[in-house]
Amino acid sequence: MASEAPAAYPRRWGRLPIITAASTTVPLACLSIAFLRDELGANPIEEITHVTGDWTLRFLLASLAITPARRAFELPALAPLRRTFGLAAFGYATLHALTYVGLDQGFDWELLTEDVREHRFVTAGFGAWCCLLLLALTSTRRAMRRLGPRWRQLHRLSYVAGVLGVVHYIWLVKADLLPPLVHAAVLTALLAARFQGRRRAGC
To answer: Is the dihedral of CA 106, 108, 109, 112 positive or negative?
Structure first.
């Protein structure tokens, strides 16, 4: 789930992918422990939905931040971490969606259809998940070889997913807009960094 091909790690960076992948499971572990201890409050389904949604967006933004960080600090070994964070974002997005569709709506497709019609944030969230699904399915080296130059073009959908995710968050929140606006500001900065990077590359 990246706009660059995965790079090989120098030996001294060899454990970084494993550490990064392991770190992405920490929020899920904390959520699971809180669930088992009955510490998710009066509405545990709502809390699970919010937590998984928050971490989806955080990991997606972390994925998008890898390229500007790699360029700024001249660390090409960071490139594969974009895929790691991107797959983590897809995993949490899927948990987020399953919590909503299964636990909240009880797989009632008529109720889901009505919810989509009445709430535009659901449509935006579903669009973001579809983008992440497509990116996850084409994140392998085999997919890169088969798609060739089209792979890079396809993986620009990560930015579309980011925009839809932020829009989903903004439309969902009714009172405290600060958290989604902070995410929107981070995404705007990352989009600006990408634009500057492409502009320099074209010079």
So the answer is: negative
133/92 Cα distance (integer angstroms): 12
Give helix then strand counts, H and E, for the chain: 10, 0
Name which of 46, 67, 72, 84 is nearest 156 in CA terms: 67
- pLDDT tens, residue by residue, 115-142: 888 899 999 999 999 999 999 999 999 9
Q: What percentage of residues in the chain have a pLDDT greater than 70?
A: 90
User: Would you kindly state where each structural domain of the chain is located, as residue ranges?
Assistant: 11-202
pTM above the 0.85 mark? Answer: yes
Q: How big is the chain, counted in residues?
A: 203
191 Cβ neighbours under 8 A, 6+ residues apart = 159
